[in-house]
Amino acid sequence: MIGDQKTILSGVQPSGNLTIGNYLGAIKNFSAFPAEYKPFYCVVDLHAITVRQVPAELRRRTYETLALYIASGLDPEKNVLFVQSHVPAHAELGWILDCYTMFGELSRMTQFKDKSAKHADNINAGLFTYPVLMAADILLYQADLVPIGADQKQHLELTRNIADRFNQVYGETFTVPEPYIAATGMKIMSLQEPTLKMSKSDPNPNAVVRILDPRDEILRKFKRAVTDSGAEVRFSPDKPGVSNLMTIYSCFSGKTFAEIEAEFAGKGYGDFKTAVGEVTADALAPVQAEFARLMNDKAYLENVMKSGAEQAGYYARKTLSKVRRKIGFVN
Ligand code: ATP
Ligand code: LTN
């Protein structure tokens, strides 16, 4: 809450080619909030370097992620779109909040455990304190609502604990945020191992459909998607593959699970997988076209970044100066 205005903040890492999991679990929902909320969406490049990045790729993906935000319906006139490292207050508040976060709390974070296992040669301190930087992102803008995929719930719970702890020591300083997790699309699973999250860093290209995949590739990946025994299109825990495809189909078509089950009653998995591919490719086509147009206009994207950083910086500095005063730093 800034003044009497409710705020929203979320972020996506520029660390890979975004998947339909990122799209359905996060970005697509960003434009669906009522106008009374002031929305902040950042490209979290500081978070991305917790894993080794190729500099030229990081730079390109930062532009791409911003372009995808806009192509997915976020109007820069109505949303503050910015790059995290352009607002130094994130790193500053991150450090301060490190001192109000316990080692034990961070040790319990499942993303840290997963990523440590995946990057065993580079378990750096930033990977460990990652969730504190995320808390800083959120608390700087006094966010009331944080749209995230289900995998980020634990980080949000930690953010709430840090905010509560700080407020208890120093008096009301931070808004304690609520997660917003969309009912469907909260967790899109891998097309090859449907019990695992679809992850943009999955080494198996067939497991992941990317927002920018060409139409024929989207169709091919869905045709190869792993399904379950039986031949019935039915949403059920013992059919993780089919249920995941139904979730994707439902998100892109707006149809309910019951409608989808009726539509494919008596038809095989083959027809169903073709339909999921088509509805996905159709839904992504306008996003891809707009993305291509934006990527040809770097100057425009840089203007958006600049204006976003100015606006975000204004609010971030306000919170940071409040925090500094409460802690006892000399201004
Ligand atoms: P990685 O898979 O490499 O760990 P990621 O895609 O999970 O990366 P982010 O780029 O930080 O990580 O994710 C951005 C947003 O997309 C987050 O809100 C996250 O919860 C959401 N998200 C990511 N994958 C999925 C998925 N499979 N289903 C739903 N939401 C997802
Ligand atoms: N940790 C998130 C990305 C992220 C984020 C945020 C999400 C960084 N800062 C602030 C919401 C709010 C991830 O890995 N998906």
Q: What structural class should be given to the helix and strand makeup?
A: mainly alpha
Number of domains: 2
Shape: globular
Let me know the number of strands.
5
CATH topology name of the largest domain: Rossmann fold
CATH class of the largest domain: Alpha Beta
Write up this protein:
The chain has 331 residues and is mainly α. It has two domains: 6-181 and 297-327, HUPs (Rossmann fold, 3-Layer(aba) Sandwich); 205-292, Tyrosyl-Transfer RNA Synthetase (Orthogonal Bundle), CATH 1.10.240.10. It has 13 helices and five strands. The protein has helices at 20-30, 45-48, 55-71, 89-98, 103-107, 110-118, 125-140, 153-170, 215-223, 240-253, 257-263, 269-295, 298-327; strands at residues 7-12, 38-43, 80-83, 145-147, 178-180. Strands 1-2-3 form a three-stranded parallel β-sheet. Strands 4-5 form a two-stranded parallel ribbon. Helix 3 packs across helix 12, helix 4 packs across helix 7 (125-140) and helix 10 (240-253) packs across helix 12. The two termini are 24 Å apart. The site of adenosine-5'-triphosphate has 20 residues, from helix 1.
Key features of this structure:
331 residues, mainly alpha, Rossmann fold, Tyrosyl-Transfer RNA Synthetase, 2 domains, three-stranded parallel sheet, two-stranded parallel sheet, 13 helices, 5 strands, 53% helix, globular, binds adenosine-5'-triphosphate, binds L-tryptophanamide
In short:
By secondary structure, this protein is mostly helical.
